[in-house]
Amino acid sequence: MTKAGKVATLTRGQAARLGRALGGRPARPRPGGQAARMPFVLLVVALLGGGLISLLLLNSALNEGSFQLTRLKKETTALTDEEQALQRDVDAHSAPDALQRRAQELGLVPGGSPVFIGPDGKVAGAAAPAEASPSPTPPPAPPASPAPAGPTPAPPSQQPSPTPGR
Q1: 0.90 exceeded by pTM
Q2: pLDDT at 7
Q3: Is the CB of residue 27 less than 8 Å from the CB of residue 19?
């Protein structure tokens, strides 16, 4: 076997190594291999950059949501405090002693025994006008005015007595 025959049976990689070892011209890299690698590298860099940017946007959105949640919690606390203060005011105004005091200020008097009208029209009980009990404190006097602002109320007339059988 000649040396040339032996080279023909070598693989391509072995032939390249043998040619370099014998002092042949240096092997040039294929221009197709370098060009084919460039799009892959650009794709990987683009994917990594896109991933980093999406993580940055996600982190920013989560931080914004956190700030909004904190603001809403503070607003909820303030509104709860206001609701409790209003509820205390309502409770104070609806207490029996406060209602009685306000009724006396308006000139209302306690009612007598109630009278009921049944479904058949019968009247149960005797109607009587409510009488003012002496109040411990006199109501505040209105300021004196030269002329009354409206018509004066007529004195209460006698209540008609309930008719039996109705």
Answers
A1: no
A2: 45
A3: yes
Return d(Cα 96, Cα 86) in angstroms, integer.
Answer: 18
Q: Which residues of 130-160 are buried (b: 16+ CB within 10 A; e: fewer)?
A: eeeeeeeeeeeeeeeeeeeeeeeeeeeeeee
At a CB cut-off of 8 Å and minimum separation 6, what does 165 contact?
Answer: 121, 122
Cβ atoms of 32 and 38 closer than 8 Å: no
- Where are any strands of DSSP class E within the chain? 116-117, 123-124
CA distances from 154 to 29, 97, 144, 151, 161 (A): 121, 31, 20, 9, 20
Lowest mean pLDDT among 13-22, 74-83, 88-97: 13-22
Q: How far apart are CA 56 and CA 74, in angstroms?
A: 27
Phi then psi for residue 9, to 5 deg, are: -90, -10
What single-letter DSSP state applies at residue 117?
A: E
